[in-house]
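Why does residue order matter? Because the sequence determines the fold. Keep that principle in mind as you read this record.
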Amino acid sequence: MQVAYTLEPIWFTPPRTKLNTALYKDSPSPPPAPDYTAAANATASGNLDAARAAAAANRINQYTPYGNLTYSHDASQGADAGWSATQTLSPAQQAIQDQNNQLNLGLQSTANRGLTYANDVLSKPGVDTSQLAQTGINPGQSYQDAMMSRLQPQIERENQQSDAQLANQGIAQGTEAYRNAKTALSQQHNDLMNNATVQGFNTGLAANNQGFQQQAYNQMQPINVINALRTGSQVQNPNFVNAPQQATTAGADLLGAANQQYGNALSGYNAQQANNNNFTGGLMQLGGTLGSAMLFSDERLKTNIKRIGTHDKLGIGIYYYEKFGKPEIGVLAQEVQKVKPEAVHKHESGYLMVDYGEL
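Structure:
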């Protein structure tokens, strides 16, 4: 006859041994907290190494017909040593550069001498208007006079001819016909004089403008010479390509790994605690259920018997053993029969049973 139970009652407190430690699950210690500072430092170090690797990958030497761009890194100064970028011109461009430097030195010397003259020019008014040709009716009277000098003989001759013609026609001075003829002739002469005035004004204005432009040119000419001296052949600077940049990748996330490892260990600890609690609860429930049960405890039915404690009241042994292929903890009926025979009963099969309620 087989009894469907796993453990016999738990009314004893066995001492801790290597054997029952395996049977009784000790309360596990919580996992130690990770060294977050060390993990963070290790993560930062990994990120820095990744950044250094990306920086080294981005330092691409370039070579063009006009010059080169090269990078260097002094490894002897350690990992934190900086990079150096060196740009060199091709031999032809370097020769132009050297010649331009020499030419610029000479031209600058000449330009500096011209600055004295230019400063003198700039210290004076921009344009001396007193030196310009005069304009306007009154200022331009000289131009009008020059034209009137040519018109005056014509006017006088026409007046004489008009007097003779009127006399031949029998028109006497002082008559209305005489006055009308003279008025018409006078208007013609006034028109000639007005035209002479306008032409004189325009001629004066043109002369004034020409004089202004000439003085402005004289003022700017030395400055233009200086600017011209400053120009010359320019060096063709190399055009370097934009090389694809290596992205900076983060190093190993040791901080996250440590945190995850701790989380897993803590989850395992919590699961083990829950399992132990369930195990202890099962033992207590089993003790209450089997408190008055009659169970097979015959030593002949048990194998791999190992003593793991002592009964608190009877002084008999408490054993771990296997019965019917299952591990159990309990007493041996033969020992109980010696100290408390009333708790032992013989089954019809001949095997001894123990009433654990009597223990």
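The CA atoms of residues 135 and 202 lie 8 Å apart.
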